[in-house]
Amino acid sequence: MATSLTLASFAWKNVWRRRMRAVLTLCGIAMGIAAFVALVGFSRSFEQEWLKLYESSGTDLAVVQKTFMNTTVNESAGATLRALPQVAAVSPMILNMMNVTPDVNALVYGWQSDSFEFAPLTIVDGRRFRDDQPEVMLGQLLADSLHKKAGDTMEIQGATFTVAGVYHGGSALEAGALIMPVGELQKLASMEGKVTAFHVRLRPAAPGQTADDHLHKAQAAIEAALPDLRAVPAAERASNNQLVVLAHAAALGTSAIALLMGALGIANTMAMSVFERTKEIGVLRALGWKGRSVMALILIEATGLGIVGGVLGIVGGWVALRLLATFPKTASIVSASLPVSILADAMIVAVLVGLLAGFVPAWRAARLSPVEAMRHE
Asked: CA of 158: how far to CAs of 99, 154, 190, in Å?
């Protein structure tokens, strides 16, 4: 216990007497952890909104192309799906990102006018669009942004559309989106006869049959009837669709760069500390300190910087999420609450960054010869 206290006191003393360097190092690691918390928190919120979209509409399965290179499905497959006894309803859909004005990009959904996906939406102005008509419906958030109401017209990629209605509800991914007849979106996107996916709602499970068993049997039946396609459960589709994967990849990539900069800051601080304290380390070795004790001392300092930087970074990331939650364009997607898993991951990352950044300076300090170290000027 005494050795532990001695190491801790030495570590605190060494960090404290180089306060400015320590503060700058803490800023670096805190920024890296803050980026990790904010970006991963944002991407997780984005994923949850996709899951909410499927759950609110009652979608059980998404039927998509089996091969990654081909992301479209023949619209004719809908007839085969509807004929399956496990299937209650089928909704062909297209998802695209478009310029709805020269300055505004939005998610654009192509649905049929009788799609069950309208269930969670409440029309607050106007009516539902009609199939095969140049009409659109706007989420309330998008309508407010564009200053549009039912009866107005708008031009999308050279084609004129009438705003049939404005809706509220569903998920945040629908509140800022535009919905049009699937046939009209097929024309705009040059996808005649193709759709992005079929959303499938299943019939209730038979008595005594579990929900998972019912889902797996429906998956098997769909994939047997349509071998070139695969049926994906809604929860899996929410986490693995291209937009969510892209958001996760961007979050992790940006966080990795920020964390690398923080790690380099700790490594530089510890390397300079070892260099400046070479004679001091030689005295400690002459007094009987073993190499592993010197190494532990340096690692404690580096890990301590990582932990404190991690705590500061978590606070900074939470503040960033709070700010995003106040902006109109992101307020409906971002949650300011941080799951315990993200907090735990952030602290683990902070500790690992400290340990890894401090390892080489600590190893160098442990290998110093007491005689050579005491001669150092």
From this structure: 11, 10, 14
